[in-house]
User: What shape does this take?
Amino acid sequence: MAVTIYDIAREAKVGIGTVSRVLNNSPKVTDGTREKVLSVAKKLNYQPHAFAQALARKRSNTLSAIIPFFTNYFFIEVLQGAQETLVSLGYDLIIHGVNSREQMEEYLSKSLKKGRVDGTLIFSLELSDSVAKEFLEKNIPLVLVDTQHPKFTSISVDNFEGVRIATEHLINLGHKKIGMITANLKSVPAKERLIGFKQVMQKNNLSINDRFILSSSQTKNDGFSREAGYESMKQMLQQNSELPTAIFVSSDIQAIGVLAALREHNISVPHDIALVSFDDIELSKYFGLTTMRQPMYKMGELAVHKAIQLIENPGTVLSSETFTPSLIVRGTCGQNPAYSFPSN
Amino acid sequence: MAVTIYDIAREAKVGIGTVSRVLNNSPKVTDGTREKVLSVAKKLNYQPHAFAQALARKRSNTLSAIIPFFTNYFFIEVLQGAQETLVSLGYDLIIHGVNSREQMEEYLSKSLKKGRVDGTLIFSLELSDSVAKEFLEKNIPLVLVDTQHPKFTSISVDNFEGVRIATEHLINLGHKKIGMITANLKSVPAKERLIGFKQVMQKNNLSINDRFILSSSQTKNDGFSREAGYESMKQMLQQNSELPTAIFVSSDIQAIGVLAALREHNISVPHDIALVSFDDIELSKYFGLTTMRQPMYKMGELAVHKAIQLIENPGTVLSSETFTPSLIVRGTCGQNPAYSFPSN
DNA sequence: TTTTGTTGTGGAAGGGCTTTCAAGAACTTA
DNA sequence: TAAGTTCTTGAAAGCCCTTCCACAACAAAA
Assistant: This one.
């Protein structure tokens, strides 16, 4: 049986209340008793019992994170950011990986009420109204990462700004005929990136050729997949005799498919066509992709801070923060001649 | 305030004990009362309070997993296996990603005593004696995955068998002059894979040319890195005028480095040199690597089952299970002509 | 000296559950 | 019908903590 505060109280000849006060750094304890208690606690190698504490305090010092497994590298980095901050703040992390929105809802409906966690982080998954309502009703702190909802604090990436930087990079390199390959337009980021692209082109007085703009009809991963990228590029090659000199692709994973399609047609990157994409997943460096990097670690970190702020400060107004992705120049845009493809 | 068993008891006009018994499927309750309680519980949308339960039962239905972040893809897959099994069994998972053994020990020393988890899973990290002692003393169920210790249940991969399959695949393809590039020999898998390789060569009456066998002196990731692979291959190229016709590389990530070095020298894979490696990380398919796949998902799954068995059945003897990796034939071994490199 | 005010302290209550215990209800059996 | 069993049930105790309340001890003010 583990050591309890009763053991300490007996040994130190004080009351359990005093022991608890000492352990919680309450100021109203004499230095003498404090030392006495502390030394006994150390001698007995006391550790507070997490559940008893949680029960009494009505606080568990635990957060849950719901992350889709399929986000892969994003998953790990963001998790790393979240986890390390959490540890430094004395919290634990219950993680729940899911593969779909349905799975998330199922999990939430079961776990939410158990009072096991003080707050929740949801990554990349769109919030359904029913879930949103439940969080609101139960007043459980919730932070959204890489997804948004008007009623909750969220952390996301500025797609418009990212696209602007990417596209202007291409423009500054002298490209005028620029195409875009995006994912399934039902997905919010796919749509935003396309709209952003058109805006930038217009702002720079460049004409938009609709034949150079393709979206995907695939539903698996909303078209953010290698296959989708491959198909889109194939299609562009079929439909056109003349090609753009540069293409902005809405994700790295699609860009890898695009590269494969181009290679099949012996079209050299970046010589014949330059490429810039979005995400900077782990694969990107191996393929030499010039891309827009999302500060994943930072996002995890900030998510935790926001969540804890919400917990410790229930009145906090919801705040949505936006990160600007940064341009990572590698081989596919042609600016960096030292960068061979696939890269070293 | 949440609904408690007291609310149910009052509403259903029974005692709290009865409510608890119904909720825990105790047989000694009449069908009549059972239904009554159940219907009230449903009506009030009751959810048991996890901490109160844990406190009373002295069981938390929670496992903690300690996984090094740097294992990347392994991390995700194995986690997925663990997590999904856990959910199906009604357990929660506290995960703790670490970057080193020191970090792991620090975390353990703090968290172990809190009685927060019923058992622990440790992945890929070698157990120090002090930590081992602590687990033993406190009698906390522990399962080791991808690492071993004589006193604990573990799940690992049969390196010898994996190497045998890989190397004999090369031999069956007609190769006789086979080299090996391994990682830092301080790491157990690196060493085992090398020893295994030599055994297989001998068993097949093939001569081992020491000039074709390289290990890495790098310490970062124990030499399981792209850079290490690149360096090793460079070195082999420098030292030899004649090269082996096939190389077994101790990990995929190194193989990617090897590929880069070979490309620089215009040596074609698999035409001039065939390659087989180990792990089947996510990258592998994009590089068309023929490799030995570890059943990561399965390992996570089994780890959980073993841990829970240990928890629910404290007398269980420790059992160590070994998985045999399976050969994934892609482009780099030359057997699969349809597989271009980098692959489609 | 008495009164008022501080400060430190012990212990009960409470958090929500499981489990034990004793007693009442419902059955047997003679 | 009485005595003896067996079931079912309500309520108390216990899990380990935090926090509130009341009181003791002492210092300062009257």
About this structure: Residues 340-344 of chain A have pLDDT under 50 and may be disordered. Chain A has three domains: 5-48, 61-157+296-324, 159-294.
